């Protein structure tokens, strides 16, 4: 099979990202072997490639928005069959017994492991996943449309929860890529007014097409105070204008796994009057199930840009340069 490996993380011109030919992996006990039908290209993959995230597995295969079909079963698997369509997401395993797991907060498990970071992911023809962490997928979507739902969609959904958006509230979205364009649709379906702030003119056009009330520049002031905001762009300098745009008691959720440094805050301008700043850390399987159920009930418009598996390096370069509208998705050719 073909598989892309991060031979050496680094910035542009220093990273080594290589396409290999290697044996198909063998599923271990309790695992599924999955033939990859589509794999979304997430900004987290870019952070793995560029070294923003520390190396957890040397030479890892990135990719954690995997849509595939079960091609083999490890011992002890009883609830899946060969040929089933499944999703493989970021969260790959947790301990199940720490205080966070027992409290339903498995995303905070100290022993959690992740697809495409701790274990090989979906930038390949095949991957594996522990059966309890594989997801059933909603009908009515193509493989390419489903792929971004498995991280961009799930994280956006959790970010909405963390932002404490009130009923029919005013939501600001900072940055408008794969996750934001899905979270916007969820918020709109829940009756919110959405204002998008992003540097890309093409993304602003898409936001308006999807139903946003306004779309401005990344550091612009929205046309009205916000009840809640979500920062999707990995740009710490945007924390300040996003906090300043909040109404009294408003909440800003930072959705990314990586963020550049935040400049100094002014307490009176940015935090006083009970404004809150919250982070978002991965997701739980409950988040995934709830979001995928939502997607089954509400047909989301998933904007994708397809790339051949052989062009994964180009897809990541385009993502880094903000040349992707919606979500980039790798499509392995049938072999």
TrEMBL record:
Recorded catalytic reaction(s): these are: a secondary alcohol + NAD(+) = a ketone + NADH + H(+); a primary alcohol + NAD(+) = an aldehyde + NADH + H(+)
Domain (Enoyl reductase (ER)) ranges: 10-330
Q: What class of enzyme is it?
A: oxidoreductase
Query: What's the domain of life for this entry?
Result: Bacteria
InterPro entries hit by this protein: ADH-like_C, ADH-like_N, ADH_Zn_CS, ADH_Zn_typ-2, ER, GroES-like_sf, NAD(P)-bd_dom_sf
Its cellular-component GO annotations read: cytoplasm
**CDD domains per UniProt:** CAD2
Residue ranges of the TM segments: none
UniProt cofactor(s): Zn(2+)
Which GO molecular function entries does the Swiss-Prot or TrEMBL record give?
alcohol dehydrogenase (NAD+) activity; zinc ion binding
One Pfam family, please name it: ADH_zinc_N
Known EC number(s)? 1.1.1.1
What keywords is this UniProt entry annotated with?
Metal-binding, NAD, Oxidoreductase, Zinc
Q: Which NCBIfam families match?
A: adh_fam_2 (TIGR02822)
Q: Which family does it belong to?
A: Belongs to the zinc-containing alcohol dehydrogenase family.
Protein name, per record: Probable alcohol dehydrogenase AdhA
Species this chain originates from: Amycolatopsis alkalitolerans
